[in-house]
Structures are given as C-alpha cells and as structure tokens.
Amino acid sequence: MAGKAFNPFEMAQAQFDKVAEQIGLDEGTRELLRNPLRQFHFSIPVRMDDGTVKVFQGFRVQHNDARGPSKGGIRFHPQETVDTVKALATWMTWKCAVVDIPLGGGKGGVICDPHNLSMREQEQICRGWVRQMAKNVGPLNDVPAPDVMTNSQHMLWMLDEYEQISGYKAPGFITGKPVGMGGSLGRTEATGYGVIYTVREALKEKNIDPATTTASFQGFGNVAQYAIRLYNELGGTVVAVSSWDQGDQTSYTFRKTVGVNIDELLAVTDRFGGIDKAKAKELGYEVLEGGAWIEQDVDILIPAALENQVTGETSKKISDKVKIVAEGANGPTTPEADVELERRGIFVVPDFLANAGGVTCSYFEQVQCNMNYFWTREEVLTKLDEKMTTAFKAVSELSRKKKLYMRDAAYAISINRVAQACKDRGWC
Amino acid sequence: MAEMFNTNERLLKSLEERAKELSCLLEIEELLAQTDAPMDTIFNGVINAIPSGWHYTDHCFARITCQGRQYIPAGRRPTSRSYKAPIEVNDRTEGYVEVYYDNDLEKRSDSLFHEEEKRLLRTIATRLGEFLSRRQLTEILQDRSGNRLDSFTRSGEWRVVVDMLRVTDEELYVRIARKMMTHLSMNGVREVEEVLHRLGSEDSVDVNGNRPMQRSNTYNIMLVSEEIFRIAEENLQDVDSRALIQQWMQEDRAGFLVRTLINLDTSLNDISEAVRRFHHLSLDSLDLPEWTRQGLKVALVRRFLTDQVEFIDIAKKYVEIKDFITLIRKLIHPVSSRGKVGGKSAGLFLANRILKQMSAEYPELTDVRMPKTWYITSDGLHSFLQHNNLEEITEQKYKGLKQVRIEHPHVIQLFKNSRFPSEIIQGLSMALDDFGDGPLIVRSSSLLEDRLGAAFSGKYTSLFLANQGTKRERLEALMDAIAEVYSSTFGSDPIEYRSERGLIDFHEEMGILIQEVVGTRVGDYFLPSFAGVAFSRNEFRWSPRIKREDGLIRLVPGLGTRAVDRLADDYTILVAPGQPGLRVNVTVDETIRYAPRYMDVINLDTNEFETVEAEAFLKEHGAELPAVERLVSKLEDNRLTHTTLLNLDFEQDDFVVTFEGLVHRGPFIKLMQTILRVLEEKMGVPVDIEYASDGKRFYLLQCRPQSNSMEIESTPIPQDIPENAILFTANKFVSNGKVPDITHVVYVDPIKYSEISSHEDLMTVGRVVGQLNSILPKRQFILMGPGRWGSRGDIKLGVNVTYSDINNTAMLIEIAKQKGNYLPDLSFGTHFFQDLVEASIRYLPLYPDDEESVFNESFLLDTENKLPDMLPEYRHLADVVRVINVPEVMEGKVVRVFMNADVDEAVAIFSQRSGQTTSSGLKKRSHWHKDQEDHWRWRMKMVEAIAEQVDTERFGVKALYLFGSTKNGNVLPDSDVDLLVHVDANSRQKKELQAWFDGWSYAMDEINFARTGHRTGGLLDVHMVTDKDIAKNRDYAERINSPTDPAKQIPLGKHKSGIRHGAAPIGTSDVSE
Questions:
Q1: B438 lies in a domain?
Q2: Whole-prediction pTM value?
Q3: Under CATH, which number does the domain A187-354 receive?
C-alpha cells in the first residue's frame, strides 16, 4: 500500500536511470549517482516563546560534490520528507552541471510550519540548524540558499550563527542575501534574462533575426517581466501575455498584435503579476481566456508560470508557426506533450537549462562574497550571458550530433559531466 | 424745570448709593464664601470692604469685635460717630460689627447714617453670624478625621453639637435622635428599652405577622430625645458618640441627592442640579459611609446609564460620584428629561472608568484615553418627534417591511427638514464650541443596542462629519446628521432585526454619542494613523498554538470602519495579542497578498468620508502620517523589512502595510492585551472594543460584550445522540457556529488519496472538487479531505485547490489521519484563512484516530457515490472522491453540525431538516415573509407568469425549465431564479428573447428589493440551450436530465406573435444586430 504512493526520489532515480542507459554509464557510477553521497538527520531543540522546549527534525542531503561545494536551498515545511529532499538534491546536481558551474547538488530542510512559529522561534531553528551542521557546511563545502518558506532573513540568521561559530566572516557560506549584506546585483533579472539568452542563441542557430520574431508568454511574474524586457531589446515582439486574476480566480490572456508595451502593462499590474483587466482593455488589449496564450500564431512560446501547462491536450493547440518553446517555469511540459513537441520538431529549451540564470547568479553571489569584491550589475549580467550561452551551445551541439531531444541532451550532458568528475577523482 | 432736574439728580444719586451698597454686600459675600480661608483673613477683608458701601467712603471705617478679638484697620481709633449691629450665632450675641466716621468729616452727627446704611450693616451682621455658625459646625465635623481629635476630648462636646442642631435643623436633630436610639437598643442598653416602650413601638418588634407596624411619629421622638442623648452620654464613650453623630450628619447631608435620585419623578435637570450641588459641597471628598456611597452610585448609574442589573453591579465598583459631574457637563437633554445615555455610551463610560481605576495596577493603562464625547439622552428622539408633531412615526415598525422600505427615504428627508427643540440646539452649540472644528462622528447609542443577546451592530447609522466651515454651517451639519441617525431607527434593517429578536414592542429610545474623531490632518485628509477592533476571545484561530484567551486584534490604517466590516476586496491585519509572534501570513507573498489595500479617511476639503487606495495615499502623504514607520514595511528584493523613517522614501520605495513595527516593537500589543484582559475580567464577559490612535496617543472608542457582537454564537452541543446518528465528533480547536441542513458531503478518502501515484491524478482531484463546488447547492455541502486543503507545496499533503474551488462550501474539514506513527499537521485553513473568515465558511479539523471522537467512516465509504453520475468524465477517481447525497441515503435526513468553542466540542448529526437553509447564522432570518416559503412563492408566480406570456413563436421558445433554489423551494431573500430555455432560434431571436427576459429580470429585482432590501441587479439567470446541447447533454442541458437535481418543466402559454408584438416588455424594440 505504502509502496504505491508517489515518491519523488524514486521518480528522480527513474529519470536518472533512463539517461544513464542512454549514455551507457557503468554500474558503479550509476550506483553512486543514484544515491546521495551524504545525508544528515539531526534534532534541533528550540525553547519556544512560552518557555517549553520543542525539538524539530532537520535534514541536509549532499547528493554529489565531485564538481564543487554542494549548493541547494533549505526548506521549512510541515510535511517535509527525506525523499523529497533527496530528490531535490539530485536535481540540483544536474542543474549546476548543465550550466557548467563548479558546484554540486544539495538540499536541506526542517519539519516545521512557520505559520505556527514566531519569528524568534524561526530564528532559533535557523541557528540550531547551523549549530548542528557547522562542521559539514561552509563556503568551500556546502552552500545553502532560501527555498520554500525561507527568505533572506533566515539566511542572515544562519550566516550570523555560522560566523559566530567559525570565528571569521564568511559571507560565501550562504546565498540569497540582500544586496548590501552580501547579495549580488542582477539577481532579480537573472532568471528572465537567462531564458532570453538561450532563446537568442537558439534563433541564431536557426538563422532567424530576433527582430522578425513574435512571442507569447504564460505568466507575468518576475521571470516573464524581465524576459519580455530583454526580448524587446533584441527587437522581438511580444503578442500575448497571460496572467492570473486574483479577483476572478482565473487567468486571462492579454493580446496586442502590434506588440505588448512592457512599461504600459507594468503600470496596470499588481505585485503578483496580476494585470488589471479593465485598465488593460482601455490600453487596447484584447482580453482572452487564460489558455489562449498557447494558441497564438507566434514563433516562440515561453511558459513562465506553473507546472504542467503544456500537456498532451494543450500541445495540440500550438500553432504551426511556433519554432521554439523555452521553459521559464519549472516542469511546464508533461511527458505526453514532450512526445508531441518532438514529433512536430519544435525546439525545446528545457527548464533546468532555460531558467538556470537564477542558480548561476547564486554562484556569482558566492564568488563575489568569497573574494569580498562585488561586481556592477552589468558585469554580473555579462558574465551570466557568457555562462548561459556556453551552456546552451554545448547542449544544442550534443542534441544535434547525437540526434537527441533537447531535454534528453541536457540531462545527458550534465550527468556525463558529474560522472566524469567522479571518475577523475577516482571515486568510481 | 430746575425742580425736575433736581428730582432726577436725586434719583440718580440715590441709585448710585444703592449700587454702592450692593457691590459692598457682594464683596463681603465673596469673602464669606471662602470656606477654607483663615478667620482673620476673612474678617480683615470684611472691614476693608465695608466702607465702600457708605456715602462718605473716604471718611469711614469698620470694626468687628467677636469672640474676644478685635478687627480694625491699622491706625484707626473708634470715634463717637458710629453705628453698630450685633453678630448672633445660634441666638447668642457673639460680637458686633461697627461703622465709624472719622472726625475730619464736617457733618452733623445726626444725619450721618442713612436708614439704608443701617439696614445694610444689620444684614452684614446677620451674614457674619451665619458664617460663624457654619464654621463651628464644619470644625466639629472635620475633627473626626483630623489630627485635632486628641486635643478635642472635652467631655460632652458632642452634646453642644446636638443642642445646636436642635435649634438650627430640627429634622436632622430628630433623625439623629432616632438613629442614636436604634444604636443604643442594638447595643443592648437597657434603659432605652423603656424609652422604646413608652414610644409604643416595642410590640412591633415581636410581631410575627401581617399586622402593619405602628407608626412612631416625630413628635414622640422629640419628646424623648433629651432622654436618649442622656442615656447615650451615660453609656457611650464620648469619642464614640461624637464619631457616630458626625457620621450620621454626613449621611444626612448627602441625603438630598439620595432623595432626588430615589424619586422617580425627578428629571435629569433636577438630578444634574443635585449632583452639582453635591459636588459643590465637596461631599464627595468627605468620607461618606460606604453604603451611602454605593446607594448613590447605583442610583446614578441607573438614572444615567442603564437599568441592567448586571451592568449596575459592575459599574458600582468602578464609578465614582464625581465621574457623573464630567458626564453631566457633556449631557444634552430635553427639559424634564428622564432619559439615559444609551448602551454604547454606557459601555464606553464604564470601560473607561475600569481602565482608569486599574491603571494603578497596570501603569500602561494610564495612557489610554477616551475621545472628547458629548451625549444626547435617549428621550431626545422622542422630544424631537414631539417638537415636530411626528409621533405617529413610531407606528412605522408595525407596518410591512416593504412599506417601511419604500417610505424610509421619505422619513429621512422629513427628519432632516424638522427642527430641534431649542434646548437641544443650545446644547449642540455648546458641544461644538467645546469640540472646535475637528471632525466628529455621530453614533447611535440605543437603549436596545449592546444589550445582552442583541448586538445591533451596524444596524443603526453612524455618520462622520468633517465639521468644517462657520459655526452655523457646522451646527446645521451636526443637526442634519443627528436627524439622519434618528431616522435610522425607523429603517427596515433595525425593524427587521428587532422583530426577529422579539424586541419590536420595546419602546425604542435612542441616545446619541457625538465623539471627536481621533486622528491628524494629513494633506486635505483627516485620519487616525491606525484603528480597528479587538476581541478578548479569539474565535478565528489560525494556529493550534493560539488559544481563545489569546484574543484577536483587527488592525487597519486610517479610520476603523474597514476593520469593523468584513470586506470582499480588502483585508485587515490580524494579530492574537496573546501570541503576537504567530502571524496568519508568514511568507512575503502571503503578507503582501493579504495586506490592507484601502483606507477610510475624511476629506476636509470636500467634507466627505472617502475610501482611498492605501498605496497611493502613502506615496503622497506617507511621510506626514504620524507613526507611519510602525505601519509599513519596505519591500526590497522580495524581502520585507521594518525600518526607520530615515530609510523610507515613500515616493521611491515599494512598501506594504504590515504593522510590523507596531506589533513587534513598542508597547501596543501589551497594552491591547492588558486592556482586553482587564475589561473581560472586570466586566465578567468577553469584550469587544473599538480603538484608534493618532500615532501618539491611544484611544478607546467603544466597549461592549463580545458574545453580542460576533454574530456567531456558541451553539449548545446536543447530548445523548445515538452513535449511529453521528457522522463525526471533534474535540480540538473548535470554533463557534452552526451549519444546518447539509444535503451533500464531499469526501476525499485520505487513504485512497495517499495511494495515488501519478501527479496528474493528484492534480485532477483538485479539479473535481472545484467542479463539484460549482454544481452542488451553495452552502449546503461540506468538504472533507485529508491534511491541508489548498496545499501549495507538496500536493501529497492535501488536495490542491484554490479558494475559488471551495468558496461555495458551508464547511471545510481537514482530516488528520494517522499514518504509521506519524500524525500529519493540518493547515487550519491558513492558506485562505482570511477568505474563509470573510465568507464565514466554517473550518473544523478532525482527528479520527482519537479515541474519544466518533468518525463514521462506514457511512462515508459504504453509501452510494454520486460522483460517476454527476461528473462521468472523472469516473476513474470515484474511489478517491465520494459525493454522498445525504437525504437520499438517510431517508430525507440532512447533516447538521454544531460547534461550540466554549467546551471545544463539535458534532455532526443526521437529523430532520431544520427549515433553516442559511449557514453559520450569519444570514438573517426574516419573520416578515415567513421566510423562504414566501420568497419562493412569489418567485414561482412570476415564473408561471413568464411562461404564460412568453411569445413562443416570435422568440422560438420550445420549452422552459426551472432549476436551482427556486425549483427546490430553498430560496433566500437574494436568491436568483435559474431558468433554462430550450430554444430553436436564430441569433436575432435569441437577442430579443434575452432582452425580453432582461426586462422581467430587472422588474423582479426591483420587486425583490422592495420586499427584502436585497438588490442583485437582476433576478433572472437565464440559460439557453438548443436541441444540439440537449442531445449532447452539454452545458446546462445536463440539468434537464440531471440525476441529482433535475430541472422542472414549466408549461408555456399559447401566445402567438402578431397582435401582441407591440406589447413586449421593456427593451426589446431597439435591439438590432
């Protein structure tokens, strides 16, 4: 009965096995990469506001650090399981490898619900976590970051505790810090810009001038907003954007065939990327139903909102004109849709490559912290462009040479890089 | 001519003389009124004042000889040219006052003193005598508490006092003699028995029955009084007797107030006068015996505040007589008023007194203020009606609600065009002078309001006034507002509300509370920095760590109106003062999403009450708003920081109203906690307060019992229900409420759900629930499912739904079923907690593994599942999602849920319909139209009329069906009518038909508004289906053959087109394509 239940770690393993088979990994390496190198389970006693002591369970999984210090977030979740954490750590390994940054994969968490905790109690959990892990984490060892229900505040508490214990300043211990407190400029734009760097390269390979292209976006959050901005700078025209309407509890697609003006649209958008329907109409936008973004006659589709949006069913509505799907969101495409996209020869920039701008910027944050010298926004973005472009080219080339679907090529390249590092170190 | 001139001159001269005399006398009176000044000062003052009353002032001087002392201006010697008058104290000459002319005056002695002057001197002597007599008495009285007691032990001194009384105040003398007799008798002094016997009252002592007691009259007491005091002298210590007599005399001095208060015929005027006199005599500061004090306080509370025994019992502990002085100064009332200030004012008055008194124990309470407030007594309304001959309006409440509603706008205008009695206008004018030109709020303070069990919250109008302009304009506006508040008594809402609660015949009297609005001027606006309401009991706990006793604060920026009402499009900040660290919204995303978006303010420029967008307002005026740094957090890099004013640039920065600074830094939360705890403890009931702050000071605006105001009362838990009639019970984290008449249960089986392995299927369960939410009857089904509804993280933890997927349920139930040795945490509705609160959807967590609780799993698993019939496309999920039609499987019974937070218990039972279709008691029942039956009946009639009149040929109508609430007969006042029209028509016909229906729809809405006060903008909800739809059973066509709730066909009339073409209702003629 329990065996039937959905297990994210088993899913991650199955995905790995498929690629391992494709690239012909040997048994020993497979065995090593199927499982995390290290798992830490520990107790964090916390004196609560009412004077009682409560003990929280903490985790840290370091899946693989053959290529560099482990990197991955810390989640606060009431029903955190070690299986979820293991799966996410594994995915982090592949994500860092695909953009070729010298970091491994990790993930951690604490079983707790911040809704039931005061800020002081959360601070105690953060500090307790670091006290338990201090020997096994650090700027050259394992670098945490914010994740579900943790934010820059939690990171600062953790950093402070780490520095208290280690006796020296180590801003590179953790990422996701506010600018001015060890954070990096360019962080806000990184993911959205990263998506467009890959789109630009994809168009280049197809010999298409971006200025002649059109695109449709799902979502109008942080990622989409910056992606649209950069895409416009390349000369591209965004025809449609979909956004969630909090009041109506549904999404709408906003269309302007002459091209979306990002600034005018932002002026009628709330902090969650919700576009004011009425005001958009006044600005001359057509308001269509939420799913209409995918049916547009455009060259590029960029799902940048939720998981499972391009499905077996919706992929049938994709116009013949569409040449590229760049996955700004995590897991927007279902396996059934992959089959359809592959059949139609639509070029897919897979999520963990397309949206790797975020993790790359975290890497930059760490690098800047370690040398205690901070770059300008332009420097950060230029370096980001380089990283993303190189990474894209490698995946694309492999895809072409080995006739692999882009997603498979991306996995193949990253798993291969990790496997090679392990081999080079003589681990397997 | 000359003679005439002389006469006039003489007259003038003599008038001048009289004026001199008068001013002299006045001056002396003033001197004598200085009760605290030393005797020498006063007498020296008097001799200096006297010459001014005499004709030859410059040559004149005075001398007083009294009690062996002499008062004379320095350097003066008595001359022979004099006149003197004796000073008599208690009929004994104690001295003289004399007037002399010096020898420089060249006048004959015989004509020196006029008759008037002689009379004046005699008057002065008399006044001096009275003054001395009063002095002596006071000195004796004060000795009791003073230190001079030791030096004042001369035997029999008290007898002097008593003897003096006998001469000066016989009544008091008699009362004291009687009291002394009783005292002696109670202390077993034998001799007094004999006196009693002589008075003939001893037989009344051993009387055991019905014979009336014989009256012993004053005369008799008078006869024996000497004897009584003699006995006292022999039997009591001097000190004791003196103490007793002094005490009795003081009791007696307060007597006039007692007598005034006890007399039911005395008006507020008389009482006010008596209280003022009481205060003037400084009796309050003398220590009256406790019982007299209590008696007076109770009487005052009863006359000014309320008759409610519970209230009086509490009030007498905290209210002082002098407090009423303050109240009286701000009380506006009709001549010979017998009214009170009303519930709201009384509650606030008492709360304020309690807090003041408790501030000794809790120093933080010293900072709590009450805004400047004036009151109009409850009978002001009646006097207003009488003044304008409007008395018959009180019959309004017996009219039909429809008529009331139609007439109400007229009543408002009538009231606004009426005049106020002059004494009220005078009072209001004084009030305005006192208030100045800051904004005011005029609130009702009804005698019915805030009584136990009848909240009336928001039933009567409260109006804000900018109070700007000339005094005349301000007064006009104030009177206008009061008239409008008065007229709200005769509005349909309060009348309906009263009738529901059996209070319709209660003679309605409404007091008015005029309060200054707390706040500061910011730009053209006036507003408090923050305001809100708070409850000493938390009925909406979002974390299991929060206890009811932790209380609840609702906070908003600007006027508190937004915190009082629940708003569909806005949120208030919620804090449990006992657990301020546990916030409803934790992530940055949640905090922003549920932040207050609008603010209520007063626009001083337009004299209007306005709602403005918080962000825009703060961008423009943020820097001027006091304490703004405690209201907002800066949003930067998706991070919220509470920061100092220095770091806030309102024009540039992004910020969110979080109240982070207020809640986590500074004394606000502790203060609120103390206020709520103290008030609940002292008032003996959970309380509900309104408060506001101008950023510097904290003001209490209202205080009333909480049980009245929440509209969600704790429900008695039915006992001794056989286990097979129970669906479930709960005994943890239960809030209050009642959910009657549940016809459908949607159950997501926790075990089956956990076994789903495909992510897609897990997502689909959420979609199924969403669809069921849209087709099941609103508020008549409950959702039960595993773990956390709306889990945004791991979908395994609970069904993935958004608020719109569950917004029609009556109740959201989360089941924490044990898995191995692990009990899943529940969400407590946190994801959409605030939405649930605003929509009043009940939330309940269930722990089926708990041994004490009942969980009827077999009912949930073994009864017929309607899902495959209702949503055939989701048949494959039938073992996960189960839909149970309760009446179908339980012989017509429904599920009713009773929740009681007091005992922390809830139970869901199978029972007969209660006939009440509303949920959680938030919607009101009306007895005016025998509820739904009446709402239903006229809707049915209208539907039949529509079917009768529809021109089938012209519009291509084939059939008409009714479904939804009107068909099922469970109609609420605002229910719409769902019609399904089977058409075979072209688009033009369809448009025309729609227009035809629209005409009916608006007309029916208008009728419904008149009947119920609900306006929905159209009462018909028309859906057209075609043959094709029916064949494919799609859209609404599936209603026709719906397995759960099929639509009912309504027979059509036989109207043909042609002759009636021109007679089609509103709006059809101008339709074109």
A1: yes
A2: 0.66
A3: 3.40.50.720
